[in-house]
Design goal:
The structure holds two protein chains of two kinds. By secondary structure, chain A is an alpha/beta fold. Chain A has 19 helices and 25 strands. Chain B is of the alpha/beta class. In chain B, strands 2-1-3-4-6-5-8-7 form an eight-stranded mixed beta sheet, with helices on both faces. The longest helix of chain B has 15 residues. In chain B, about 50% of the residues are buried. Classes of the chains: A alpha/beta, B alpha/beta. Chains A and B meet through β9, α6, α8, α10 and β18 of A and β2, α2, α4 and α11 of B. β19 of chain A pairs parallel with β2 of chain B, so a sheet runs across the interface.
């Protein structure tokens, strides 16, 4: 007698595909999210994967719901293991999980619906088409017309031979038959109603959002050295550089990358470097250079767990301190940390204007989790972004570092006007000439640092969620936002006031009012020591009462945080 | 007075008798003679060191950045506005030591810049340690038993990586150096000028006298012969002064970049099409 699984009361379904690198799980992810979104279902997907090109054990989480889904969860409703190893997923399985795979090979005490993706794929033409079998099976469970997948496969493999297209379609059909059979025999009961208001939504990843945001911000110069998990942004921008007619150059190292970005801004372009913590560590001296020559720059840092090579393909919020303190000497910077795809787009776009206006380096802090997150969102309004250039035409007596009231001198660029633009990494006078005059030094330090208070006053306030009058104040920043938000809702928000920080430096002085009165201040951070918490304490003098931290390479799961919030509210 | 001379007095930080003074004069007269280039379009990029201070003492646009990092900045300036005349200048420690990786890869890019490297075979600003080009046996405060490492051979490296203009000059030969610098600036593509000069404070081996005895002017050499150029660069004997290799007509990096093929507008004048971006975003619906 087969075990029966009833999902008819579920408002959302989570599907996990696991397999070795090279088995095409990523393809299933893009096929399913695309087709299901087109069917009027909200979708979310994100992967966790090993740092290897072939083998190992990777998995992709796909969530589907008539309502919004946009956060990482542990729960697995359907597990389709394309390879038998479940060791990394065990803790996320329960007796309610439907496991479909090769019963004999899979090492688990839980019941398994016996089905060999590989054997079916081999019969259709090649065992590598296991991913097409899996796609067919999942879509049939969700009662999606088989023709949609067949059309998609036809288009996807259009450049390959008819034989390959046909074999993939056959593999998908065989998978679909199995799914239909499971429904017909009432082994699985699943109904997912679709909604009609998603037609205008876009389906994008964090990498796409940062890349599109950069273009929207007028970025026209990209120089970077590839490094996971930031390479997606580099490849996205490189892919668009023909269409949008800008420069993308792969630098010989990260040191060159940021120095190039500074050279590009010096010449009037809008440059970005995209990197991860290790690469950004190499950019420290150029950060400092940007500080003294008052040069705008934008750097995107997609964090991964360190120290050193750490966990190259996984996620962490461990580079905030690096971003805050990189570069020797005192100088001003701004740091943003998008909490969702919309913020990734708008904050990246605005980074270019802010850098230009204040002549400072602006950093965008994301991480592997945000880069690889894909979900549907209503899309972005280009009326809300504009390119505001702050470049002046020079006259013959132009002085790059002319003293002004607010410390910001009009920025000329070479060849535009009749003046000369002289910048120097040594301490310099108004003309950019080297000086060791101590009075000039004092004036120049004050000139450069003056903009800090201006930036503080216009710094973004954290967004407030949950109960605005709650006595328990939860503070989180950057990419973990959607999990915290879902958990606050799930835990019942009677006592929690949740603050999400999308700008982490400088901090707006008015934040003090938001945290001072808290009965309990709770910090949620995806790192070991609570780096942002330290910054809050240092800035506002209010101690953190409880820290919820995680540094195992995974994002927080919604369930983990829900339990934590339930407990805190019950205390 | 040349327009490239500063219109105000400045205290130059070089030691009395330094070869850099002669190089400065030579560069100014070379620029004066290149009348097709407008002063406002000349950008000097340098790193850190005695040689890297050169732009400070010229009336030009300049970006005096970090030690070793002149080339990446020069590359970006040219990429952002190909109509500018970009000259990267620094010493042997700056360009061959700290910036060695950038040297290798910018030769490969064939970016249209001139690269003038003052090579005095010693570290000046840090007071006398070995540079990548110091001769074996030279004793310094760090190399107390004498330099052990094989000296870096910039000309051979550049030729092997496909540099399209490779020359060696000596600051004492001002007329010849001026001609070489002019050729380098006029060359379309990456141009290396390895510019020998004495360090009167710290190099007691490679002195004015030494250069007089150990250099010669190259004559009767076919500059387009890469094999011969390589052979000359590898010759362990006296140092030949002149153009070793020159290849005109090779595509530069900006020639090859798609964004400049139909449109030579510098990046700062470009605006992206909101219509195109809207289409890109909507393509994900």
């Amino acid at each position: 007698m087969n075990k029966r699984y009833d999902f008819s009361d579920h408002t959302d379904i989570s599907i996990v595909l696991s397999g070795e690198a090279g088995q095409g799980i990523k393809t299933v992810e893009s096929v399913l999210t695309r087709i299901l979104k087109d069917q009027g279902l909200n979708v979310f997907s994100c992967k966790e994967y090993m740092s290897r090109v072939r083998g190992g054990l990777n998995s992709t989480l796909i969530r589907i719901s008539p309502g919004k889904v946009d956060a990482w969860i542990d729960r697995i409703d359907f597990l389709l293991p394309l390879c038998p190893d479940l060791s990394r997923l065990d803790h996320r399985l329960s007796s309610k999980t439907v496991i479909i795979g090769e019963k004999e090979k899979i090492n688990t005490k839980l019941p398994v619906i016996d089905f060999s993706f590989e054997a079916i794929a081999a019969a259709a033409g090649d065992k590598r088409y296991s991913n097409a079998v899996a796609s067919g099976l999942i879509l049939s469970l969700l009662s999606v017309e088989a023709s949609l997948l067949e059309n998609y496969l036809g288009k996807k493999f259009a450049e390959k031979s008819k034989e390959i297209v046909d074999a993939n379609i056959e593999a998908a059909r065989q998978g679909a038959e199995k799914g239909t059979e499971l429904l017909k025999k009432n082994i699985i009961k699943l109904e997912m109603s679709s909604v009609s208001n998603l037609a205008g939504d876009i389906l994008v990843s964090g990498s796409d959002a940062v890349g599109m945001g950069a273009i929207a911000g007028g970025c026209n110069f990209v120089s970077s050295y590839p490094m996971s998990p930031s390479t997606g942004v580099l490849e996205f921008l490189a892919d668009q550089s023909n269409e949008f007619s800008f420069v993308t150059e792969q630098a010989e190292d990260e040191i060159a990358a940021l120095n190039m970005v500074l050279g590009a801004w010096y010449t009037g372009a809008r440059g970005i470097a995209t990197t991860s913590g290790g690469g950004f560590a190499l950019m420290g001296e150029a950060m400092s250079l940007a500080g003294i020559i008052e040069m705008p720059a934008v750097v995107h840092i997609a964090q991964r767990p360190g120290p050193a090579t750490g966990l190259p393909t996984r996620t962490e919020q461990g580079d905030l301190n690096l971003a805050l303190y990189s570069g020797h000497g005192d100088f001003v910077r701004a740091i943003f940390a998008p909490g969702n795809l919309d913020q990734a787009f708008y904050l990246t776009a605005n980074a270019f204007n802010l850098a230009d206006e204040y002549q400072i380096p602006v950093l965008i802090l994301t991480d592997q989790y945000l880069m690889d997150s894909v979900y549907n969102t209503p899309g972005w309004d280009l009326k809300c972004v504009s390119v505001k250039k702050h470049i002046t035409k020079t006259d013959p007596d132009y002085r790059r570092y002319r003293y002004t009231g607010n410390g910001i001198s009009p920025r000329g660029i070479p060849g535009y006007g009749n003046g000369l633009v002289c910048v120097d990494s040594d301490e310099h006078d108004e003309n950019g000439r080297i000086t060791e005059d101590w009075k000039t030094r004092e004036k120049m330090m004050e000139k450069r640092m003056k903009r800090l208070s201006m930036l503080e006053d216009k710094a973004l306030m954290p967004s407030v969620h949950g109960n605005p009058e709650g006595d328990i104040v939860v503070a989180a920043w950057g990419s973990q936002h959607n999990m915290v938000l879902s958990a606050v809702k799930n835990a019942g928000n009677s006592r929690v006031k949740y603050l999400h920080f999308s700008q982490v430096y400088p901090l707006n002085p008015r934040i003090k009012e938001l945290i001072d009165g808290a009965g309990k201040l709770v910090l949620v951070e995806n790192n070991y020591s609570g780096q942002f918490g330290d910054l809050l304490v240092k800035t506002f003098g209010r101690d953190i009462d409880e820290k919820i931290l995680l540094s195992n390479g995974f994002p927080f799961s919604t369930e983990f945080l829900t339990k934590k919030f339930e407990k805190i509210q019950g205390d | 007075m040349s327009k490239y001379e500063l219109p105000f007095n400045i205290d130059m930080a070089w030691c009395p008798g330094c070869g850099n003074f002669a190089i400065r004069k030579t560069i100014i007269s070379a620029l004066d003679e290149l009348t097709h280039i407008q002063q406002k379009d000349v950008v000097f990029v340098s790193g850190i060191g005695q040689a890297a201070k050169m732009p400070q003492y010229l009336n030009v646009n300049y970006f005096n950045g970090l030690h070793g990092r002149g080339l990446p900045v020069a590359l970006a300036v040219k990429l952002a506005n190909p109509s500018l005349t970009v000259i990267a200048e620094g010493g042997d420690g700056d360009m061959y030591g700290e910036g060695g990786n950038h040297f290798l890869h910018n030769v490969r890019r064939n970016i249209d810049i001139s690269h003038i490297v003052h090579n005095n075979m010693v570290y000046g600003l840090t007071k006398g340690q070995a540079s990548p080009t110091s001769p074996p046996g030279m004793k310094t405060g760090v190399q107390v038993n004498g330099v052990i490492n094989e000296p870096f051979n910039p000309l051979a490296v550049a030729i092997s990586l496909g540099a399209t203009f490779v020359a060696r000059a000596y600051s004492g030969e001002m007329e010849q150096t001026k001609q070489i610098i002019k050729m380098a600036i006029n060359h379309k593509g990456y141009a290396l000028v390895d510019l020998l000069h004495p360090c009167v404070s710290f190099n007691k081996i490679n002195t004015f006298k030494w250069y007089k005895e150990n250099t010669f002017t190259i004559e009767g050499h076919d500059e387009t012969n890469r094999g011969k150029a390589w052979e000359m660069a590898m010759n362990p004997g006296k140092l030949g002064l002149g153009v070793y290799y020159r290849k005109e007509g090779t595509k530069t990096l900006t020639d090859s970049l798609r964004c400049y093929q139909k449109d030579t507008t510098p990046l700062h004048e470009r605006k992206y099409s909101k219509k195109k971006l809207t289409a890109l975003i909507r393509s994900r619906v």
